[in-house]
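task queued by scheduler; priority normal; single chain, no ligands, no partner chains; default sampling; output format set to C-alpha cells
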Amino acid sequence: MLENNLYQVIKKRMLDEMNDSLRRHPVYRGDVKAYGKYHMGKERPQVGVSLVNVGSSRETLSPDDTLGDLISMVVATRVGNCPGTSVEWVWENSANISKYVKDEVATGTLSSDRMSFSTSHPYVTEGPQSPNPASNVGQIRVYVGGKHQIPRSIEASTGRVFLYSPVPANTEVLVSYYYKDVDPPGFYFIEILDKTSFIMTPMFSVEEELVAPKVTGTEAILQLANTPVLIDYVLSLYLRWSPTAPRVFLDRNVDYTILEDGTITILTPLPAGYSLYASYRWRGDNKGPYTIDGEYSFNTEAIKGVVLAFGSRVEEGDKVCVVFTDKRERCAQVKGGHYIMNFEWKVFSRDPMTTSEITDHLVSDIWAFRKEPLRSEGITLQEVTGSGEAESSYDDATQAMYFESTISMEIRTEWKLFIPYILKLKQYRDLTQYHHSYGNTEIVNYTTIRAPELGYPTIV
C-alpha cells in the first residue's frame, strides 16, 4: 500500500484550509472563496483567492528510503493476481479503538461474597487509543458508596474486578473504564463491485479457544464455538497440562476428525487431566454493499477499528485483503521520504484595503491556528508569508484595476510505501514429532503443520 501526499491530495487539503479560514472571518465568510483554476467560460469573481502555482522537490531520508517497521493492528495486501490498488491505504481508527464508560453502575453484578463485580463490557483496556488489556488497577476507577476505592486486581478479558473487602449492603458501586470496541481479528476480503461500492467477506481467526477445560479420556464428540469452520485452512487442536506447559498437537484423521459445522469426533482417546485447545479460522457472513463516497474518501464502517482510504484507482472486480490482528505487532516494512512543496496564492479584489485585510487574515490565521493540527496529518507548514503586491487590469476601457497580493507557502509532506510481512499462503505437509511426559506415560504425537511458502506478499 502507498500513502502519497503530493499534488492532488495537498492541493485539495490546502484549498479546504483556505476556505475554512475565510469562513472564520465575519466580514468575508459569505462571499469570498478560494479557487483552484478559473473557468474560462465564466466571469472572473470580483474578490477571492486563487492558487496560481505549485511546485515540489524530493527530500530523501535514507539511501534505500527505509524508515523502519510499522507496529499496528492492521495491514493490507492484494489478493491473487488482482492489482490491489482500489484501497490506497488502511490505518487504525485509533480514536475509536477503545471507548470510555463513566460511572457505570455495577452493583447488580456483585458476587455472592460481594468481593467482586463485572463491567458490562469485557476486554478492558489500559486507556484511550489502546487495544492492550488493562495491566494494573490504576487504569480503572471504582467508587463504593461515593468513595474512591483501589481494587485488588482486574481480569481484563472478562471485565471482572476484585476488591479487598466486601461491599456493604445497600451500597452503590460505580466504575469508570476503557474497553476495546473493534471487530474480531482475521482476514477481511474486500471486493469492488463498481466505482461506488464494495462488499466484504470476513474470515475470522480464533487463537487458543478452550474446547474442553479438563479431558476425562472418554470424550467422543466435542464442539467448536464458531462455524462454519474453514477446515482447509490453518487449523490445529492441541493439549496442555497448564497454560504455560508445552503444546501437544493432535493429528487430524488419526486423533480426530472435524466437520465444517465445528463437530470434532475423537478417534484416539485423549489423556485425562489435560485441557484441549483449538486454533482455527471460520467464515463470517458477507457484509455490504458499502458506499465509496467518491475519490479521496474514507470508510470507517466496514471494519470497526479500521480506516479504509479510497483514491482515484478504484477498479471494478479488484480485491484487497485487510489483515486485522488482536494486538499491535510488527506487520510491515515502511519505506518513505518527504516532499518540499511550494504554493503560490493570489489574493485579489477591487479594493486595495480589502486585498490587504484578506491577506493578513489568511497568513496569521493559518499559521497560528492550523500549523499544529496539520502537523498531525503529516503536513508541516514551514513558512506562510505575504510576499508582494501588484495590480492587474479588470477593464481596459474604464481603467478599472484588480489589486492583488501574493501568499507563499512552503509545506513539507510525506510519502510512505508499506510492504506487508505476509507470506504467500500455500499448503504443504510437514511431519513433526512431539514428545511430552505426563507422570510415567510418554505421549508421542505426529501432526501435520500447514506451513507458508516464501513469496510475494499476497493472499491466494
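post-processing summary
- Residues 66 and 335 are 4 Å apart (CA to CA).
- The first helix runs from residue 7 to 23.
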